[in-house]
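Question thread 4412

I'm putting together a teaching handout and wanted feedback from people who do this every day. The idea is simple: show students a protein as raw sequence, then show them the structure tokens that encode its fold, then repeat with a second protein so they can compare. Below is the first pair exactly as I plan to print it.
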Amino acid sequence: MAKITLSKLRHSYLSTPKSDSDYALKEIDLDWNDGGAYALLGPSGCGKSTLLNIISGLLVPSEGQILFDDRDVTALPPDQRNIAQVFQFPVIYDTMSVYDNLAFPLRNRGRDEATVHARVMAIAEMLEVTGMLEQKAAGLSPDNKQKISMGRGLVREDVNVVMFDEPLTVIDPHLKWKLRSKLKELHQRVKATMIYVTHDQTEALTFADQVVVMQLGEVVQIGTPVELFERPAHTFVGHFIGSPGMNILPCELNQGTAVFAGQPIALEGPVQGAADGKTEIGIRPEFVALADHGLPAMVTKVSDVGRHTVVECEAGGQRVNAVVEANAPAKGSAVHLAFRQDMTRLYVDGWLATSPAADEQGAA
């Protein structure tokens, strides 16, 4: 296991990049601590796989360094980085038994059979596949094949990091939650450094202690699932995470007060710096309430999603979603919307521009 440091990392697929737009990865500086569970989250084409390939050694970055426990591995090939990787599609040997598949990474490194047997049995017990160790891998279901692929990545105790590249893509939806839970349990038991790459927010937020959110080759926020939900650093994070995503509403700023649809909107706290760019209010639907007074709106759609109801409204020519627990109004109803002040943010050119009120900072 290792602490992983990315220092001033940038990468371009062009031989002579001339501007920032020529880089598939913008400059990245971050640390992943030894034994942590991390996720790279973002849409297709945002740079997740490029970054994963650089960490694994399949790509050499155009600029910057990759350090494992402060050792520079930037120029080392994959076989010298001591990593394990689990891919979208299970990488196993169909003609081998489950036992031999799990044993292969250890036997390939010359470990004695007593050690091999002990590790295989330990991982098999964690994965709940002990009863199928003598079966040929070819006869396994897709989810069990991916379990064995995960086990091959976890069976070695000497790896610096285990990397998962969209490992649940081909798994049936009703089985995904089982493997997500199993993977989280495995991390808690083996304490290996794990990096999970996905475009699925549910997978990232349920697995990782820290999530790196990427957009267009840039890291826009690093935080816990709670931080990403409650305090998005960028409107992209607010929109990408959550179902429905954050309400992003254009506004004007008048002497520090946000004005939307002619109504002053109380913000969480003071605006930081000059607000010279595009200004927007960000508020999660969970923190929008139907009230007797507030922002006038018209209900345009009501969606019962089981645990709660999403009420879609139109206000000031913009869509505003609210999550309500009961007594949802009918479509076409005139309502008023109240924004919870401590959860109402201002964004300038996409970036968070307000800080919490002084009393909240003191309480924190």
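The second pair follows. I'd like the answer to focus on this one:
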Amino acid sequence: MSLVTHSILISVGSNIEKETNVSKGLDLLQQAFGQLALSVFYESDAVGFTGNTFLNLVVGASTVATVGEVIQTLKNIEVVCGRIKNSEKFSDRTLDLDLLTYDDVVCDSPVTLPRDEILYNAFVLRPMADLAPNALHPQTNTTYAQLWHEYDKSKQRLWPSQFTWSNKVK
């Protein structure tokens, strides 16, 4: 019996000790999922609250895990990186990991896929357009590059970061 491999895209963000927490999160994601594809790193203003700027990117990986198993892995990594369980939705974060897509699955349980934030937040859509420009959003059937092209960029400030991940885990 062969295992089916699934393509996943994960958003990564932090505004508390962001370089340290994003690096640690990427190390742990690589341990969990193997080789990672990374978008450009971006900085953005906090959305929905007043706080420090965020460091954001989108990560692509492959997995044989189920959606539920991926979600549990992401939550475990957040906790290892100091995330407080049940923290407020719009608040500072040591590390925020969200499963954006799992193949072309559209579902509401155990999480909503594709993630709604893709269409509404520059810090998610822009890195997705970088990483998977020709991939189609499973509900709009529009490429991420086209969605970014049509996005109202005056809604949220976003700029490339000078941060680089040292990729310590082999």
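Top answer:
Good format. For the second protein you could add a caption like this: The first helix runs from residue 18 to 33. The longest strand covers residues 54-63.
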